[in-house]
Design brief:
Residues 5-205 form the DSBA-like thioredoxin domain. The chain has 220 residues and is an alpha+beta fold. The protein has helices spanning 15-34, 60-68, 71-87, 104-116, 119-134, 143-150, 158-162, 198-219; strands at 3-10, 39-46, 58-59, 99-100, 183-186, 190-193. The chain starts with a strand and ends with a helix.
Length: 220
């Protein structure tokens, strides 16, 4: 059986990361149909985009107004993101988000669960944290919010996980290095950046499989 390893650098507050995840999900569905004997492993590696944010975060609207310069620039940026999200099957209303959180504790929690949970539980937490921020407008930098989220995961004891969320600990950073996000690395060889269309990701995966097959043939 042929194996593919996909490493994904991401941050929970990046809408392009959520869009990229949806596109990757579609690409993997396509790959499962065309190459059913291929085993795929996906590792999600956290990158904190805004480590300089205060621990309690900042008001979302104020943050983006200062970052982009005007309310109109913010509106145009949000419209662009929401159009891209819709093409991936997502309905996002960024104007309703209240807080730009510091994601250090969210990444710490994700890393702790990663060492204790099974893949299904980790996938559930990833989806829940994305949904918490973009859909439920939760402050995922808040410890109490993270407590509520992690207690919803079946089969995990929340106390040992949450006791490790100490501010003095450095947040988890991707082993992929300081990359822009989302970033997709296939078998540590092929690098793709940004919220790639599902077709582009699927093509890259198929090309990697073809390259692996060619290398195997040469070794025979």
């Amino acid at each position: 059986m042929t194996s593919l390893q996909i490493d994904v650098a991401f941050d929970f507050i990046c809408p392009w990361c959520l869009i990229g995840k949806r596109q990757l999900d579609k690409a993997l569905e396509m790959l499962a149909e065309s190459h059913p004997q291929t085993e795929v492993s996906v590792e999600w590696q956290g990158v904190q985009l805004l480590p300089q944010l205060p621990p309690n975060g900042l008001p979302f609207a104020d943050f983006y107004r200062q970052r982009l310069g005007s309310d109109e620039a913010v509106r145009l940026r949000q419209a662009h993101v929401q159009t891209a999200a819709a093409s991936a099957g997502l309905k996002l209303d960024l104007s309703r988000i209240e807080r730009m959180p510091n994601t250090a504790n969210a990444h710490r929690l994700f890393q702790q669960v990663r060492t204790r949970a099974n893949p299904a539980q980790l996938a559930m937490l990833l989806e829940r944290l994305f949904a918490g921020y973009f859909c439920y407008r939760e402050d995922i930098g808040d410890r109490d919010t993270l407590t509520q989220i992690v207690t919803q995961l079946d089969g995990l004891e929340s106390a040992p996980l949450l006791s490790s969320l100490e501010d003095r600990q450095p947040p988890y950073q991707s082993e992929l290095g300081a990359l822009s996000v989302p970033a997709f690395v296939i078998n540590q060889q092929v690098h793709l950046f940004g919220a790639q269309p599902a077709e582009a990701l699927y093509t890259a995966l198929c090309q990697q499989l073809a390259n692996m097959s060619s290398e195997t043939d040469k070794s025979l």
